[in-house]
Design goal:
This protein is mainly beta. It is built from three helices and 30 strands.
Length: 374
C-alpha cells in the first residue's frame, strides 16, 4: 500500500494511505449535475401534474354540475298519499314525503322555503320545510280541503274547504287561521297581483258560480252565477282579466275584472283544466285533458299559438323562473312531462308516482342536503 505525505493544519508532515485520498474525476460533477437537474425536473413535473389533476377535479364542469344546487319541484301524488320531490337538474325523484290521504292543493311561498299541501281525504294542510323536505307543521282546516292559493307576498294561504263550504285564510307567519268565510263547495282559487281580492270556483249543487272575496276584511264581496261548473282559474299577467275553465266547455273563458263581464273565450282541446301563465307574462298554458295536450295561448290576442302532446289526463302545470321550461303532471300515465317552451317539445318524462296532480317548482336553487347529495 503506497503512502503520501501531506501537511497537517499545524505544519507537521503526516503520512496517509493513498487510497484514502479523493482524486477528482472531471466526469463526476457532470453526472452529479445531470442527476440533480433530472431529479428537480421530475419533482416539478409530478407536482405540476398533481396540481393540474386536482384543479381539473375540483373545477371541471361535470363536478360543478354535480355539486351545484338546483331548484326542486314538489308533486302531489294523489293515490300514493305522498309528495314527490324532483331534482329539476337531473329530472329524477329525490325523495317522497308521506302526507295525509289525497294530496289535493299545493302552493309554495315566494322565498321557496315552505310548501303547503291540502289533503282532501283528511282535514288538514301540511307544511313542508324545503330545507329538510319533511313536514314541520299540520294545520286543522275542516273536512275535505281542495285547492290552495297564496298571496304574492306569501303572507296568506287560502284553502278551499270543499267539505265545509268555507274558504279559510292561513297566516303563514304563525300557521294560524285568520278567518273563514262561507262559499258553497269551493274548489280552486285565484288571487289578484295586489293580494287584495280572490276569485273562488264555487261548485255548489245546482248553483255554480264565481265568488269574489275581499282579503283585507275576509268578507264575501259577490257571487257571479255560471251556467256550468267552474274548474280552475288564474289572473292574467296584466291583472285585468280572470281566465277560467268550466266543465263541459272546450274553451277558456275570459272575464274582464273591471266590468265583471265575460268578454271572450279561447277554443282549446277537450276538457281543459288549469289556465296558467309564464312568469314573463308572454305565454298562456292550458292543459287539455281529453287529447292529453298542453295548449299554448297568446294571452293578449286570445289565440292558440301551439300544441304539445304530453301524457294521459294532464292535470296541472308549473313553470321555471326564466319562463323557458314547463312541467305538466299527467294523472293517468303517472308521469311528469318536461317541456322546452321555445321549441315546444317534450325534453324528458319523469316517472313520478301514482296519480300526480298538483305541482310547484322553486324559482331559485335550493341548498338542502337532499339536493346536494344526489
Amino acid at each position: 500500500m503506497m503512502e503520501r505525505q501531506v501537511l497537517a493544519r499545524d505544519g507537521a508532515r503526516v503520512s496517509t494511505p493513498k487510497f484514502l485520498h479523493y482524486t477528482r474525476n472531471p466526469v463526476t460533477p457532470m453526472l452529479r449535475s445531470l442527476f440533480s437537474r433530472g431529479w428537480r425536473f421530475a419533482t416539478m413535473s409530478a407536482l405540476l401534474l398533481l396540481g393540474t389533476s386536482t384543479y381539473a377535479l375540483a373545477y371541471s364542469p361535470v363536478a360543478a354540475a354535480q355539486q351545484a344546487p338546483v331548484p326542486k319541484a314538489y308533486v302531489g301524488l294523489f293515490k300514493d298519499n305522498a309528495v314527490a320531490v324532483l331534482d329539476t337538474g337531473t329530472n329524477q325523484v329525490l325523495s317522497t314525503i308521506s302526507v295525509p290521504a289525497g294530496p289535493h292543493g299545493i302552493v309554495i311561498t315566494p322565498d321557496d322555503r315552505w310548501v303547503y299541501v291540502s289533503s282532501d281525504g283528511a282535514s288538514t294542510v301540511s307544511v313542508i320545510d324545503t330545507n329538510t323536505d319533511a313536514i314541520s307543521n299540520s294545520i286543522e282546516i275542516g273536512q275535505m280541503p281542495h285547492g290552495l292559493a297564496i298571496t304574492p307576498n306569501g303572507a296568506m294561504v287560502l284553502v278551499a274547504g270543499f267539505g265545509t263550504s268555507q274558504v279559510s285564510a292561513i297566516d303563514t307567519a304563525t300557521n294560524q287561521i285568520l278567518w273563514k268565510v262561507g262559499v258553497a263547495n269551493p274548489h280552486n282559487i285565484a288571487i289578484t297581483q295586489d293580494g287584495k281580492t280572490a276569485y273562488v270556483a264555487s261548485q255548489g249543487q245546482n248553483a255554480p258560480a264565481l265568488a269574489t272575496l275581499d282579503l283585507t276584511s275576509g268578507a264575501l264581496k259577490g257571487m257571479m252565477p255560471l251556467d256550468n261548473t267552474p274548474r280552475a282559474l288564474n289572473i292574467s299577467p296584466d291583472g285585468q282579466e280572470l281566465f277560467f275553465t268550466e266543465a263541459g266547455i272546450d274553451a277558456v273563458q275570459v272575464l274582464d275584472i273591471a266590468s265583471n263581464q265575460i268578454v271572450d273565450q279561447i277554443p282549446v282541446g277537450a276538457s281543459p283544466h288549469l289556465p296558467s301563465f309564464t312568469p314573463d307574462g308572454n305565454l298562456g298554458l292550458v292543459v287539455a285533458q281529453g287529447p292529453g295536450e298542453l295548449e299554448l295561448v297568446n294571452p293578449d290576442a286570445y289565440t292558440l299559438v301551439g300544441t304539445v302532446k304530453v301524457g294521459t289526463m294532464p292535470h296541472w302545470t308549473a313553470t321555471t323562473s326564466d319562463s323557458g321550461t314547463a312541467y305538466v303532471t299527467n294523472e293517468v300515465s303517472n308521469d311528469v312531462s318536461v317541456i322546452d317552451l321555445a321549441s315546444q317539445t317534450v325534453t324528458a318524462t319523469i316517472q313520478a308516482g301514482n296519480a300526480p296532480r298538483k305541482i310547484v317548482v322553486q324559482q331559485s336553487a335550493s341548498t338542502s342536503a337532499s339536493a346536494i347529495e344526489q
